[in-house]
Amino acid sequence: MTIDIHDSWKPYLKNEFNKPYFESLIQFVKSEYKNEQCFPPGPLIFNAFEKCAFNDLKVVIIGQDPYHNFNQANGLCFSVNDGVKHPPSLINIFKEIENDLNIPYPISGNLERWAEQGVFLLNATLTVRAHEAGSHQKQGWETFTDAVIQTISDNKENVIFLLWGGFAKKKAKLINSKKHFILSSGHPSPLSANRGYWFGNKHFSEANNLLKANGFKTINW
């Protein structure tokens, strides 16, 4: 299993890759991919790190698990491949962008276009077994992705962290709020959104306002 990440991440993560827990995790993932149907496809497991260079990173969005149905997961949280039906959470994300920024609802649910502008789309667990949500949790992925969040917090400034839902909000403890911006809201899933915890959070315009105020180029959401 090759770890395909943009070169800019390597100086920050090379020590993590050499830790015993990570070696055990990789063995687990190799075995799962050999014996079970898993997502995303092997070459896309580290796609978030490949598509968003460390130096370009401006915004972080944290998801929990990859999508676990065929052709959905592409290694970026909340994102699906071109031509794939948009899952409910992604629909609500796009509806909020539509209302917040008056941008037309997009045809494609592929969020690579965000990643290439500096939006780091990180799932806490990077792999999953087909049709079994959470099946690769507690194998070491969370240890790794927590270390990634901490690394971003320690080595960058003025990053905007979008924490949606209870799971993501727990990651706030890894982030230095004196150096960075944390925007929290309910999760975009229908359960949360329909109770009034998601729509109207205006995170997309707020993120752009913060970027502009700190001299960064805004995101074309």
UniProtKB/TrEMBL annotation:
It is found in: Cytoplasm. The active site is at D65 (proton acceptor). Its EC number is 3.2.2.27. Keywords: Cytoplasm, DNA damage, DNA repair, Hydrolase. One of its GO terms (biological process) is base-excision repair, AP site formation via deaminated base removal. It catalyses: Hydrolyzes single-stranded DNA or mismatched double-stranded DNA and polynucleotides, releasing free uracil. Pfam families: UDG. Residues 50-211 form the Uracil-DNA glycosylase-like domain. The keyword Electron transport does not apply. The keyword Cytoplasm applies. PANTHER family: URACIL-DNA GLYCOSYLASE (PTHR11264:SF0). Belongs to the uracil-DNA glycosylase (UDG) superfamily. UNG family. Excises uracil residues from the DNA which can arise as a result of misincorporation of dUMP residues by DNA polymerase or due to deamination of cytosine. NCBIfam families: PRK05254.1-1, PRK05254.1-2, PRK05254.1-4, PRK05254.1-5, ung. HAMAP family: UDG. This is Uracil-DNA glycosylase. It comes from Lacinutrix venerupis. The lineage of its organism: Bacteria, Pseudomonadati, Bacteroidota, Flavobacteriia, Flavobacteriales. The gene is ung.
